[in-house]
Amino acid sequence: MIFLIVWLLLIGYAVFLAPGGETDPILSSIFSGDLGAIDPLVLAVFNALGLFPLVFLTLLLLNDRQKWPAWPFALLSFGIGAFSLLLYFAFGNRHTDRKLRTPDWLARFLAFRFWLVVLMVFWLINGLTLLQGFSLAAYREAFFASSLVSVMTVDWFVLWGLSVYATYHFYPHAKLKALAWIPIIGPVLVLFLNKKTK
Prior knowledge:
Blueprint lengths: L1 H16 L7 H8 L7 H22 L9 H10 L1 H11 L11 H8 L1 H16 L7 H10 L1 H24 L14 H9 L5
Keywords: Membrane, Transmembrane, Transmembrane helix
Organism: Planococcus kocurii
Protein name: DUF2834 domain-containing protein
């Protein structure tokens, strides 16, 4: 029920409450390729919304034994983020005794340490964006001027919470589960350090 409530609140925020005018300056800069005009923190959060789905793709497909297939929701998260994943956790994440839906070759790849290291490298590269220097004041200004930034910020926090939940839910006996609280990279570290733990 909590996931459905958060889903409804997220939709309500995106449609009715998110600040920003008719012209979105951040979206305009992205479409024009003028990334230099975007504060590095805004850019890092935007890029993170492409990294979170990779993490969820890994977590969900490695544990796709639930009531509903996870892969459609994991793929949709690349486009609509938490909006798709909240529905999965609200209705489709019911335990069953069925075998893993994910093909063996794909499950092996997603659990392969190389893939987990690739995710870590992506996270590191995105973090290096912040070395250009960033401004919390500039982010705040972008938050209130751009509906994209305001919605993606809320989406980022929801995805963070969902990633922590998914790690604790699917790997209740994993060691160092608290690492999952590190945004994006945390669940990957838990998988890396507990490769044979389920």
